[in-house]
Every structure is written in structure tokens, then in C-alpha cells.
Amino acid sequence: NAGVTQTPKFRILKIGQSMTLQCAQDMNHNYMYWYRQDPGMGLKLIYYSVGAGITDKGEVPNGYNVSRSTTEDFPLRLELAAPSQTSVYFCASRMVGTQYFGPGTRLLVL
Amino acid sequence: TQLLEQSPQFLSIQEGENLTVYCNSSSVFSSLQWYRQEPGEGPVLLVTIVTGGEVKKLKRLTFQFGDARKDSSLHITAAQPGDTGLYLCAGETSGSRLTFGEGTQLTVNP
After folding, report:
1. Chain B residues whose beta carbon lies within 8 Å of the beta carbon of residue A96
2. How far apart are CA B100 and CA B102, in angstroms?
3. What is the pLDDT of residues A23-68, one digit of tens each?
4. A37-53: buried (b, 16+ CB within 10 Å) or exposed (e) per residue?
5. Quick one: chain A helix, strand, coil %, rounded to 5?
6. Which residues of chain A are within 8 Å of residue B88 when distances are taken between CB atoms?
7. Over the stretch B57-67, which tens digit does the pLDDT of each residue have?
8. 20 to 30 Å CA-CA from A100: which of A74, B82, B96, B99?
């Protein structure tokens, strides 16, 4: 099993551009999450999903959108990139009691 | 918004010393998790504690969940350079969401 995979690993965006961060898991987990982590800080929940077709907002959803058309995939969309969205983004999936994290996507908005 | 306060934020010690990291909240959590994160990687689960007052040991690491399920501590005995990393506590709330602390950056010097 590959676990949780994320692409790209690193991206530079200009202000106002849009992009989609990809996340996939092959463990058949129903729960999936998107977090952002600013330097030296903990993780803030952006959006989460409890199953295909069901998504909900976390602590910091503004400026982001998600979709969950399949169990495996949970992409995160940035429509109008802003410097405040410079961060490292982690996707995670969950089995009972354990969240498995992907390696992260480092995003720089200039 | 549930808040988890983690202390200290930074800790630099010599190999062989003991240390304790604290995680406190005014909220009650159904479970408390501790993660370790290395640079450029996602967090990796160390332990999940679900019962108030419970103590779990993982080799030289001892984790405790407070009786009221609002606080937790991580104690490392005889720290080694390989223990260096960012330690994150996370409390689970309803809806399978995790609230993360801000993290403790531990450096163990040889």
C-alpha cells in the first residue's frame, strides 16, 4: 500500500492564481482531512470528509474548496491564491483511532 | 473553538536528560493523541489515550491523560538525539475531528 499520497510536493503561485492540491489514499478509509501548518506551528483543519459525497468545514475553510467524489481522492482547491495561504498542506485519512498523514505540499504564494 | 495549549514551545536539552511536555485545555476530549513530526514529513502517531487517568508507556516515553480528560503530558526518560523532532498533542472531539496543539520543538544535543 502507498498509504496517503500528495501532489505536488512544492509549488509557487502568483497572487490570484488557482490550483488544486491532490490527495489520494489506498487504504479504503472513509474519513479524510486537509490541514495547513504554518512554520513552527501546529495543524489547522481546513476541511474534512466522512465519506464520498460528504464534506464539511474545519477551523480555517475560507479561500478553499473541496470535493469527494470517490473514497480514494480528496482534492483541495485554491481559487484565488493569497500570500496568507503560504503554508505546508497535509492530507490525512483515518482508520479508527489513527490518522495517517501524507508527506505534505509546500505552497508559496508571491 | 476548542484550544489546546502546549508547553514548552521549544526545548533544548543534553543527551541523557529527562523532559516533560504538557498539553492543556479547558475542553473535554474523547481521546488524546500524541504525534511526532520530523522536518519535511507528516506527523506520525505515537499513542492514542482514551481513558481519563490512563498512563501508557512506549519504551522511554510515558504518556498520561488527565482524570478529567482535559490535559495530557509526555515524559521522555534519558533523551537521545534520535528523539529530536516536533511533538504535537491532539484532542479528538465529536465528528472525528482533531484539535492540535501548537507543538513542542525538541532538540536533544549529543
Report:
1. none
2. 7
3. 999 999 999 999 999 987 889 999 999 999 999 999 999 999 999 9
4. beeebbbbbbbbbeebe
5. 5, 55, 45
6. 42-43
7. 999 999 999 99
8. B82
Count Cα neighbours of B63 within 13 Å in the Cβ-side half-sphere.
24
CB-based contact (8 Å) between A94 and chain B?
yes
Residue A89's DSSP bridge partners are A36, A105
What are the Cα distances from residue A43, in Å, to A55, B2, B109? 19, 13, 26
Q: What is the pLDDT of residues A79-96, one digit of tens each?
A: 999 999 999 999 999 977
The model's pLDDT over B37-87, given as tens digits with 9 standing for 90+, comes to 998 899 999 999 999 999 999 999 999 999 999 999 999 999 999 999 999
**Residue B58 class from Cβ within 10 Å (0-12 exposed, 13-18 middle, 19+ buried)?**
exposed
The total number of residues shown for chain A amounts to 110
